[in-house]
Amino acid sequence: MKFSTKAIHSGSEPDPKTGAIMPPIYMSSTFVQGAPGEDKGFEYTRAHNPNFTILEQQLASLENAKHATVFSSGIGALMAMVTLLKSGDKVLAIDGLYGGTYRLFNQVLNRFGIQFEAIIPQSLNELQEAFKSKQPQWLLFETPTNPLMEIFDIAAFAKAAKEHGVFSIVDNTFASPYCQNPLELGIDLVWHSTTKYIGGHSDVVGGVVMTNDAKIKEHLDFARKTTGVNPSPFDCWLVTRGVKTLSVRMERHQSNAMAIATYLSKHPKVKNVLYPGLPDHPKHDIAKKQMRGFSGMLSVEFNLSLEETKKLITSFKYISLAESLGGVESLVNHPALMTHASIPKEERAKMGISDGLVRFSIGLEDIDDLIDDFDKALLPYLN
Ligand SMILES: Cc1ncc(COP(=O)(O)O)c(C=O)c1O
């Protein structure tokens, strides 16, 4: 089965009792048992629910994973994953993670003895040296990164991690399973905020972790039940509904993003466009090797002052100033003042997140309207 067919047909069949072609929503907190301990696979919705299972099968098939566990949010998924660690363990991250991931490690998990360090290796050799000197349990990274659209060679990083006995984890939220499948490139664990492209409509918050290891799946299910980071059945149903159109949405997200990246790279008020689909992106070749498409996220450095940039991002007609990404509507975000505000300014600057950097999540609007929106919003700054 190919991707689009799996997105529509995996996870559930038409209901044999009623013929309903779409799965029902099982809004039930508990499930009747025939005798004590004899259930039909479901006991209590903090642990399991039929809508969790439907979504898990659907998402696992898209990521070509054996198993998936769904959670209340992307951060809920990360919280469940870290229960695989113990006090004293070390997480080596590659800089360019979602701001909330840093916040969880640096402001909460540090108090429980989990060590976290983010580095920017300049070569594979430097990463291997870091494995040797720092002896981490985990390697954690995103590609494309947030918000600089840096690309890392997933297969090479996974191989290096394996050689050093390090467990590798990729946050695949920006690419979505449509564009990239890190498990197939040797990564041990893949997670997503399903709030973004997978849900796709900015109407639900959720997360998922995918693995080929049955023991890890068992642990993640245990962690969900034990820490209470379960989603609601309705939220899972909404995500299942969103997933059915993932491939058509991603095609439009990325064709719109490519058109806008090309347009902006020629604009006089633009210093730099960061989009892995542009042939002059420094890691375009690696992106092409590991991605089937380049998704709908791009960042731009405008030739504008901070005050002008702040004004620009509230002057679009169709592109709304808001956190999050991956929905049908276009969004703009100022990383230094929004998603990465919890990171101290000096650290942000070291990471390359300047005050002039703006991130766009390009939606599914007509491309002519979006280009027109940029034209009009940038017009006051020409001359
Ligand atoms: C790349 C990435 N990973 C993880 C998360 C966290 O997901 P959630 O907001 O669903 O908890 C986000 C949220 O913005 C994100 O952008």
Your description of this structure?
The chain has 383 residues and is of the alpha/beta class. It folds into 2 domains: 3-243, Type I PLP-dependent aspartate aminotransferase-like (Major domain) (Aspartate Aminotransferase, domain 2); 246-381, Aspartate Aminotransferase, domain 1 (Alpha-Beta Complex). 37% of the residues lie in helices and 15% in strands. The protein has helices spanning 3-9, 50-62, 74-82, 99-107, 124-134, 154-163, 176-179, 214-227, 233-243, 246-265, 284-290, 306-312, 345-351, 367-378; strands at 67-71, 90-94, 115-119, 138-142, 167-171, 189-193, 207-211, 270-274, 297-302, 320-321, 331-333, 357-361. The strands form 2 sheets. A 7-stranded mixed sheet has the order 1-7-6-5-4-2-3, with helices on both faces. The chain is globular, with a radius of gyration of 21 Å. The N and C termini lie far apart (54 Å). 48% of the residues are buried. The model has no long low-confidence stretch (mean pLDDT 96). Pyridoxal-5'-phosphate (PLP) binds next to α3. Pyridoxal-5'-phosphate binds next to α3.
Helical fraction equals 25-40%
- The dominant shape is globular
Biggest β-sheet, characterized?
7 strands, mixed
* Classification by helices and strands: alpha/beta
What tags apply to this protein structure?
alpha/beta, Aspartate Aminotransferase, domain 1, seven-stranded mixed sheet, 37% helix, 383 residues, 2 domains, single chain, five-stranded mixed sheet, 12 strands, binds pyridoxal-5'-phosphate, Aspartate Aminotransferase, domain 2
